[in-house]
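Researcher: Predict the fold of HTH CENPB-type domain-containing protein.
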Amino acid sequence: MTLVERSVNITPRKSGPKKKPLSHRKYTPPKPLQRRENTYSPRKKVEVLMFLEHHRIYDPDHYFSVNGYRHPLAREASIQFLIPEPTIYRWKRDKEAVLDIKKRSYSPHWPDLEEELFRRFLKARDKKLIVTTGWFRRQAQIIWEDKYPQSMKVFTFSNGWWLGFKRRRGIVKRRITKESSRRPEEYKAVTNNFLCFIRRVSNNTNTLQLRHNQSPKMTINYILDSPVRRFEKKWTLNIDETPIPFGYLDGSTWELRGAKTVAGKTDRSGWSKRQATLIMYIFADGSFRLKPKIIFHGTAGPTGRIFADEGHLYAPDVTVAYNETAYNNEDLFYDWIKDELADVQAKTRDFLLVMDVATFHKTDKVTDQLRQQKVTRALIPPGCTGQLQPLDVSVNRPLKDLLREETLIYMMNKEAQGQTEWSVKDKRIMTTWVVSRAIQRLAQRPEMIAKSFISCGISVKPDGSQDHLIHIKDIDEIDFTGWETAEEIIVKEEEVVNALTDFEELMLTGDEDNTPEDLYIGLMQLKKEQLKTMAKGLGLLVGGNKDDIVRRLMKRYTDGTTAEAPITVEEEPESCIVVVP
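Model: Structure tokens for HTH CENPB-type domain-containing protein follow.
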């Protein structure tokens, strides 16, 4: 049977307000009637039932009295309203019919579609699979194409149908894990200094004056000339590392209302933990001129056994590296600067690289190579990446959603082809294709990426004409006083860190994207003596190897006993970390 396409411009009829139960209605004591009524309006029936529900009569000797008061009897209501007692008994018995508060039945337009979709949903949740809105959309389209192949354009997964389907089936969204935090006031000065430094190095006029050992002056000619941007947006780069798993159990899933336990399941234990590191490179104009890099566990490089065995199966839009920890390090970062960054950076004289203060980002070897290639480095202060790093502000959240969705699509396609078991090799290959497709979809939103650089104050015009576009969380106005002489400062004094947004910062009550795996990464990056100092400050045992200490700290930080306590990290001296409970 061919269905007729419905117009999307027809406004659906809205239902009236939901009827309230008696216990939620406002009661006003009625006055006794002077004459008998033979017919009774719905309003009068409700008035009588309200009297029976809310009115109280002082009768301390009655069996059902509470604190000396009881509900009125039907006989007393009959006297009050001059209504026959059997009639009141009948109204009381059929109260729901009188009040019309029974749930309305609804016949969906496509019951077969909804029944099959709900069946698949229950089956997916029985397997502890994470169910997203995208999953519902894809499954609904597959079912529709199977049941109504001649009416492909009729069903559009509209928001109205989706809301109605969830309401009819009792489906609600439940979060598996979620944490949030607020940025402390102490970061305002650090943020202002960073943005002042960005303004100074981005200012062409100021740069030329300093080259000639002249002091920059804010003259009327300087203001009217509106200094030229030194770093073009296409040569302003932000990089960041983020852990990625082989299976996604973080975030939320659709579940039946009232479910006490919300669980998830992966193909193999540990695959929902960090299995690789993804390094992202975004430019201020919203483009992707550098391929993302994935670092897997392994001892072989591009010429080794792993790459030789499966490298030809990887997606061509990503680069792959291997080491024992699957983390970025000084050697990998140094090679990236010489080989990959050099190819892009060689096309311009002025290049700005914005990144966090991970240890391997600021070593002498890396610093000398950046200076040799004439790359200007801007290090985001510790604990501020969630406010000043474009990737953390606007990109990582949609990127993770895309990675999760593309992972599900990839696995569904493979399972449709008959694959039921997954090896580590299969997962590595899958990860390269998932990242490639997620980046391709993310590249379709260049305006979002460009806007994140502006809102962080990195790519705004250096003449101050775009300062109103800067939006830093918890900072109403940026103070650019003294920007002409601002220097790059890596914060050395003790400062509060309450979000792990890079490998140098520890998370306790971090941003909502952070997970215990991020905390584990931060702890493993520290030296054993630093971990012992932290454990001692928390009153924990300090004996055993590094893994033992990390395990104790992880248990302390994730069992909820220190949910409001900040972690204080002292960058210098390097061997000292102080924890303030």
